[in-house]
């Protein structure tokens, strides 16, 4: 089974939060949704951390230091 994209995970997480906020699920279902939400949040955090590492590698200078650049590039 393919891993979910960051965007798909966030969309599912948002749906879980909305469902929990609505309050019309049982306690058992709420706990199940909460547990799934925690797993999704951890997965999203991991993907963001990996993306940050890639950006740091791509922006490293020849000495291994980080070159600070505007995110938007030249304007």
Sum this structure up briefly.
By secondary structure, this protein is mainly α. The protein contains two helices and no strands.
Radius of gyration: 18 Å
Sheet of most strands: none
Q: Rough shape?
A: rod-shaped
Q: What average pLDDT do the residues reach? A: 87
Reading the helices and strands in chain order gives HH
Number of domains: 1
Q: Termini distance?
A: 42 Å
The beta-strand count equals: 0
Query: Which structural class do you get from the secondary structure elements?
Result: mainly alpha
Report low-confidence residues grouped into runs of 5 or more. Answer: none
Count, helices: 2
The share of residues in helices is 55-70%
Structure write-up:
- The protein is rod-shaped.
- The model has no long low-confidence stretch (mean pLDDT 87).
- With 75 residues, the chain is mainly alpha-helical.
- It has helices at 6-22, 27-58.
- It has one domain.
- It contains 2 helices and no strands.
């Amino acid at each position: 089974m393919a891993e979910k994209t960051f965007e798909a995970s966030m969309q599912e997480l948002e749906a879980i939060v909305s469902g929990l906020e609505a309050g019309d699920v049982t306690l058992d279902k709420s706990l199940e949704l909460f547990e799934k939400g925690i797993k999704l949040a951890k997965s999203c955090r991991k993907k963001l951390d990996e993306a940050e590492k890639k950006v740091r590698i791509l922006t490293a200078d020849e000495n291994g230091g980080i070159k600070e650049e505007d995110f938007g590039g030249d304007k």
